[in-house]
Amino acid sequence: MGYVKDRFKEIADQKSQEIKELIAQHGTRKIGDVTLAQVYQGMRGITGLVTETSLLDSDEGIRFRGYSIPELRAQLPKSEGGSEPLPEGLFYLMLTGEIPSLEDVDHLSATWARRSHVPNHVFAVIESLPSSTHPMTQFCVAILSLQTESKFAKAYHEGISKKEHWSYVYEDAMTLIARLPRIAAYIYRRKYKNGDHIQPDGMLDWSANFAHMLGYNDEGFRELMRLYLTIHADHEGGNVSAHATHLVGSALSDPYLAFTAGMTGLAGPLHGLANQEVIRWIEELQQNIGTLEPSKEQISEYIKKTLSEGKVVPGYGHAVLRKTDPRFTAQMEFAKKHCPEDPVVKTVWNVYDVAPAILEATGKIKNPWPNVDAHSGSLLKHYGLIEEDFYTVLFGVSRALGVLASLCWDRALGFPLERPKSITTEWAKQFVSESATAE
Ligand code: NMX
Ligand code: MLT
Fold first, then answer.
1. Mean pLDDT, to the nearest integer, of 410-421?
2. Ligand 2 atom 9: residue of nearest CA
3. Is the dihedral of CA 340, 345, 346, 348 positive or negative?
């Protein structure tokens, strides 16, 4: 067993003991009340999950194992000459709670490079789909077809003890993460570059190799990928992709099946597909006004038009956040350093200047501030990755780090099948009338 796996197991065993004691001593303590409105309205604000990898504060944004995004950018190991964190380091942090050394990160890069070979049948499955198929659909189908490789499914079938589940899930998680960039790049080159595929370069770090296979060897794009794949990795446990992966994994469906569920959720326009929608919305705005750099007045009018048509302004709002997403700010800082004159980037910033006040004035949008998706597409476009249908696949490759680290934790802690209670409206009406009689 590799040393990262040993370290994870050691830390998870300690945590498991702490949890046992916590439940034994305080298991009956209440941590919240649930209202009828919350049950009907997407369970907002109901605490019902344990996710060790990250925690979201509605005002401050995400912290991974206690570290904010600026802290991660400062403290995680970087590539030689680079200034953005290597996502391998974030994965190590999410698994162990410890900031890794450069050697730890190199170890993960090398492990993933060694495991990156994708079996031919996965490419054949992708090829069997019409090339017009949305990249996220191709991505989900490809991951599902890779399920043939699951060590967990095989071991479970052969009969293993519950105590061993974590070990096979860990192996599957590592192999899946290793192979996702190759699958994603294959889909990209197939759909947009005439099937002119690029072989992996095992000497590169995970992000640089991904950039290389996509066909972008500019050092700026590599740095963007390192930042992008780090900041999209995790957003505590309740978001659709994390929750879906965790839920399906709780049935002991293997990591390939569970992660596919997460990705089908990420493919929704209110979740990860919003990054594609933002760029479409900006391009429509530019075409509508007839200029690459619309003024703030023109942007304001376009936002109002979008709202009056009963559509959402993509990239704005959040179910939990109530301030500008620090992932937006990190990308804005990157853009200020690398491409401050790019017209799409400048438009993103102009939208940021005017949208919050307009959204706030509607009186119904709880968070008028931008989320991660409001900025990402403009940066990708700057480096020439202009095919916005593909953007959510990049989000998905990154999200694997968080949700698969969490799946390792779920099995190491022996979490049970997730199965909350549901009600009917008849039940709710009866509950209300019985409580009224009792009062
Ligand atoms: N533009 C227009 N209307 C909005 C927006 C927006 N950006 N955000 C929220 N609203 C509406 C929302 O549709 C709802 O309307 P109604 O009562 O008519 O159903 C009302 O405001 C209240 O919604 P909230 O409670 O503020 O937001 P909720 O927690 O339900 O939804 C989102 C959160 C993220 C789904 C929502 O803000 C949204 O649709 N944003 C645009 C899509 C987007 O950027 N999604 C990406 C999220 C981040 N990610 O990567 O996953
Ligand atoms: C995410 O990164 O998953 C999104 O911001 C959505 C969320 O947290 O609900």
1. 98
2. 239
3. negative
